[in-house]
Amino acid sequence: MTKRPRKPPTPLLIDENAPLQSRPVKRRDPKQPHLPFDPMPDRVEPCLALLKSKPPQGDEWSYEIKWDGYRLAVHIEPTGVRIITRGGHDWTHRFPAIADAAKALGPTTMILDGEAVVLDEQGRSDFGLLQNSLGASGKAGGKLPSRNSILYAFDLLYLDGHDLRGLEYAARRHLLEDALDEQTGAIRISEELEADPDDFLAHACRLGLEGIIAKHRDRPYRSGRTGDWLKIKCIQSDSFAIIGYEPSTALPGAIASLLLGGRYRDGYKYVGSVGTGFKHDVARSLKKQLDKLKTKLPPVRVPGKNLVLTAPALVAEIEYRAWTNDGKLRHPSFKGLRDPEDLSETFRLPD
Predict the structure, then answer these.
(1) 50-233 and 236-345, same CATH topology
(2) What's the alpha-carbon Rg for the chain, to the nearest Å?
(3) How far apart are CA 339 and CA 345, in angstroms?
(4) In what order do the strands lie in the sheet with 267-274?
(5) Do 241 and 251 form a contact (C-beta atoms < 8 A)?
(6) Which of 26, 66, 103, 279 is catalytic?
(7) The pTM is what?
(8) Each residue of 225-240: pLDDT tens digit?
């Protein structure tokens, strides 16, 4: 069987001065699939991890470290980069190193889901260090850019015109690893670890980490706390509104403890006080900030004397061991202030 003779080369390939001419565009064959581009969403409500006491078992689950920082969505768009918080605020200017690293990933368009952290000397994420880098505990009032923060990316929601949220997590993870092949710089992959989940959790707790995350490999990306993602903590940590303080009698111009409230129905409910976890300079800074928020109409009634009650405008990140039978935090410790713009992080009590 003989081969068909090759067509002679077009004038364009043999004569660089020949004029460019296009052929008439043919109609699309109706039998061929249509592959329209998906518009990039302005914002994606994040998938949240459901708290469990033990990690799930089975090959359908993947496991990684639980990072202690700020949840961010990094939008890499044709017009630039936007960094959006869990509450929907644009914090691009607050994370310049992450923004620069995102720009370097272009001209690809994508949405990365991840956690911004600052690492301590042992390589552990430290929420207090992150807050200090953002100026949350100082005179700047939480308005400094964090230049030493890192984004650990753990999901890819959009890539080059395609919305990936309908894909199963395993496929999204594969695309994420292809998109981020570097493990240095301000954007890194939150690594999956192949290990027995009970042993992994125990090891994480021994290292002083916050806990681990388990993700179902076969599920799409669904906003909210659906149970597709689970968090198992070594120690409890949540955000509570500051509704007042007890002045210090030993340290002039400082607080002795903070009064805390959780969201309850349409208001707040008192969940106890915290008197550990802050140094002298932080105790003085907190008093100055809270004195500007004094109110004669507190959100809840708090038992005790010599207390200063305030509007619930500041949110504190608190570590604690458990809950008492009367709904108070057991062994709480102050970790740092959350940004006032991010009040959506405040812990909500069940009805």
Answers:
(1) no
(2) 26
(3) 10
(4) 267-274, 255-264, 236-247, 308-320, 333-338
(5) no
(6) 66
(7) 0.75
(8) 999 999 999 888 899 9
Under DSSP, the state recorded for 36 is P
Let me know: does 111 contact 144? Beta carbons within 8 Å: no
* CATH code for the domain defined by 236-345: 2.40.50.140
What percent of the chain has pLDDT above 70? 86
Q: From CA 96, how far away is CA 225, in angstroms rounded?
A: 30
| 219-255 core/surface letters (b: 16 or more CB in 10 A; e: else) | bbbeeeeeebbbbbbbebbbbbbbbbbbebeeeeebb
Per the annotation, the verdict on 66 as an active-site residue is yes
Each domain of the chain, given as residue ranges in start order, spans 50-233, 236-345
Q: How many other β-carbons are positioned within 10 Å of the β-carbon of residue 87? A: 15
Q: What is the largest CA-CA distance in the chain?
A: 102
* Distance set, CA 14 to CA 5, 9, 20, 22, 224 (Å): 19, 7, 13, 17, 60
Tokens standing for residue 152: 């650990």
pLDDT in tens, 91-142: 999 999 999 999 999 788 999 999 999 999 999 999 889 988 988 654 445 5
Residue with the two structure tokens 């949840």: 71
Structure tokens belonging to residue 271: 């969940």
User: How many angstroms separate the CA atoms of 94 and 83, rounded?
Assistant: 9
Q: E strand or H helix at 169, and its extent?
A: helix 169-179
SS3 of residue 282 by DSSP: helix
- CATH annotation of 50-233: 3.30.470.30
